[in-house]
Amino acid sequence: MESFEKAFLGASGVVLAVFLCALAYSTAGMSIHLPSSAGQIYCTSAQRLRKVLRKTPPFDNPGVREVAPGKYEAVVIGQTWAFTPDEIDLPAGADVTFIATSADVVHGFLIPGTSVNMMLIPGEISKFNYRFRKPGEYILICHEYCGVLHHTMYSKVIVK
Ligand code: CUA
């Protein structure tokens, strides 16, 4: 083996070791996890996950509800290639917690112009809190490639 080959092999090993250490440190030392510590939904296959979701609160009843004065909960399911519900209506100033998951593959959950940016992973519950101060029409888009009609996957957030 040439000496430069040995050097490259050695360097590759060092890079792998550094990445593994960084991964261990970020998870154990800095507590960085998937944006989904809100819970999990156990299921064995994508086919069954839709059925399980239909029976699992709060996903058995997607939509917006007021949980306290001015505080809302928006339960959203992402599936190829739509969000349920397809429109979220909120009053201006609403403090909303999005609780979302995917019924099939990985989807994105992004509302441009806000800090709402999540990944929806099948079987994982994602949660994010945001206050809509300004009235207007916001768009909720999927920003994780999820198949041929990925670009058509969106929903609206209407703040009045
Ligand atoms: Cu769902 Cu892209």
Give a description of the structure.
The chain is an alpha+beta fold and 160 residues long. The protein is built from 2 helices and 10 strands. Strands 1, 2, 3, 5 and 8 form a 5-stranded mixed β-sheet that branches. Strands 4-10-9 form a 3-stranded mixed β-sheet, with no helix packed on it. A hairpin with a 2-residue loop joins β1 and β2. The mean pLDDT is 90. Bound molecules: dinuclear copper ion.
Features:
160 residues; alpha+beta; five-stranded mixed sheet; 10 strands; elongated
Percent of residues in β-strands: 35-45%
Largest sheet, strands/sense/barrel: 5 strands, mixed
Structure ligands: dinuclear copper ion
Mean pLDDT: 90
Helix content: 10-25%
Kindly report how far apart the N and C termini lie.
70 Å
Count up the helices. Answer: 2
* Helix-and-strand structural type: alpha+beta
Q: Please tally the β strands and state the result.
A: 10
| Radius of gyration using CA atoms only | 20 Å
Using the alpha-carbon principal axes, give the shape: elongated
List low-confidence stretches. none
Order of helices and strands: HHEEEEEEEEEE
